[in-house]
UniProtKB/TrEMBL annotation:
Residues 257-276 have a biased composition (Low complexity). GO terms for cellular component: Atg12-Atg5-Atg16 complex; autophagosome; mitochondria-associated endoplasmic reticulum membrane contact site; phagophore; phagophore assembly site membrane. The lineage of its organism: Eukaryota, Fungi, Fungi incertae sedis, Zoopagomycota, Kickxellomycotina. The gene is ATG5. GO terms for molecular function: Atg8-family ligase activity. Residues 248-279 are annotated as: Disordered. Coiled coil: none annotated. It holds the Pfam family ATG5_UblA. Belongs to the ATG5 family. This is Autophagy protein 5. Residues 15-131 form the Autophagy protein ATG5 UblA domain. It comes from Coemansia pectinata.
C-alpha cells in the first residue's frame, strides 16, 4: 500500500477507531431474582466499558458476563449459577428503549442520545443490562455473537449484489477469509477486517484515477479495463430514521422488518406526532445507479 492509498484510508481508519464509554447497571427486577436484593454488592453496582462505535452489542455480551456477571454471582452467594445465564439472555435498555442489537452501536448512540446540532452528549452512556424477559415484540430473539455474524454476512452479500449485480465477490471468498473478516469485526481488528474488505470493495489509487489521457494506448486500455471492473453498478446505501416506540408503548409496532418500504417514510412523521418521545429506529434501503 503506497502513501497515497494510505492517505485515502486515513478517514476510514479514524471512523473505525471511534469508541464510546458505557456505564452498565443491572435491572432491579433481575437483581432481585438473581440476588434477592435490588442493591448489588460492592464493587459490582456499576460496570464500565469502552466499546467500538462500529461494533454490535452481542459482541460485548460475553465480556460483560465474564468480567461482571459471573464474578458478581460467584462472590454474592447467589443461588443462580452463572451457567444459567446465556449470551442470548443478555439485552440492553436505554431510558425504556430496548436497544436493537443488530444495529451498530455508534448508530444507536447517535440516534438516541447525541444531538449533533447542539453538541450534547451523554458520556459515559448509561445503559441498563437485562438477563431476563427478553422483549421479543421489540427486538429480535436470541441476541448472540454467531447470529450477529450471520446477519452481518447477509448484509455484506446484499451490498455486494447492489454494488456489482451479483454476490460473486463474497461467494468467492475462502472460508478462512470469511472467518477472518468476521473475526476482525467482532474483535475490532482493523488489519483483519480491512484485509478482506479491500477484496470485496477494491479501489483505484489516486495515481490511477489521475493518469494522463496521453498515455500509451495499451496502458490506457488496461487502466480503463481495471477501473471498469472496479466501477460499481450502484451504490448500496442504508438509511435509518426514528419512529416512536418504547418498552411501555403497547401501541408501537415492531419495525425490524421494515426493509424497503420507502412509502412508509412519508407518513411516519405525521402518524407518530402524538406518540412517546422514546425513539425506535426503522431502516430501509436505497440504491442509486
Amino acid at each position: 500500500m503506497d502513501y497515497r492509498e494510505t492517505e485515502q484510508r486515513a478517514p476510514l481508519k479514524r471512523v473505525w477507531k471511534g469508541m464510546i464509554p458505557i456505564e452498565l447497571q443491572l435491572a432491579a427486577s433481575d437483581a432481585i431474582e438473581l440476588l434477592a436484593s435490588a442493591v448489588l454488592p460492592e464493587p459490582f453496582q456499576t460496570f464500565y466499558m469502552l466499546i467500538p462505535r462500529v461494533g454490535y452489542l452481542p459482541f460485548i455480551s460475553g465480556k460483560i458476563k465474564e468480567r461482571w456477571l459471573d464474578p458478581m454471582l460467584a462472590l454474592s452467594g447467589s443461588r443462580t449459577p452463572s451457567d444459567q445465564i446465556g449470551e442470548s439472555d443478555i439485552w440492553f435498555e436505554y431510558k425504556g428503549q430496548a436497544l436493537k442489537w443488530h444495529y451498530p452501536i455508534g448508530l444507536l448512540y447517535d440516534m438516541l442520545v447525541s444531538d449533533v446540532h447542539r453538541g450534547d452528549a451523554e458520556l459515559p452512556w448509561s445503559l441498563t443490562l437485562h438477563v431476563r424477559k427478553l422483549p421479543t415484540a421489540k427486538i429480535i430473539a436470541q441476541p448472540n455473537g454467531q447470529l450477529m455474524r450471520d446477519m452481518f454476512m447477509a448484509m455484506i452479500k446484499e451490498a455486494d449484489f447492489i454494488r456489482n449485480g451479483s454476490t460473486k465477490r463474497v461467494m468467492d471468498l475462502a472460508k478462512s477469509d470469511q472467518m477472518q473478516f468476521l473475526d476482525g469485526l467482532e474483535t475490532h481488528s482493523y488489519e483483519k477486517y480491512f484485509a478482506i474488505h479491500s477484496i470485496l470493495v477494491p479501489t483505484t489509487t489516486v495515481a490511477d484515477s489521475r493518469a494522463p489521457l496521453s498515455s500509451a494506448s495499451s496502458t490506457a486500455s488496461n487502466a480503463q479495463k481495471n477501473r471498469g471492473a472496479m466501477q460499481p453498478k450502484a451504490i448500496p446505501v442504508r438509511f435509518y430514521m426514528q419512529t416512536a416506540g418504547s418498552l411501555d408503548d403497547g401501541s408501537a409496532k415492531d419495525t425490524q422488518a421494515a426493509g424497503a418500504a420507502t412509502s412508509t417514510t412519508a407518513g411516519s412523521s405525521n402518524s407518530n406526532s402524538g406518540a412517546t418521545k422514546q425513539a425506535d429506529i426503522m431502516q430501509f434501503h436505497v440504491s442509486q445507479v
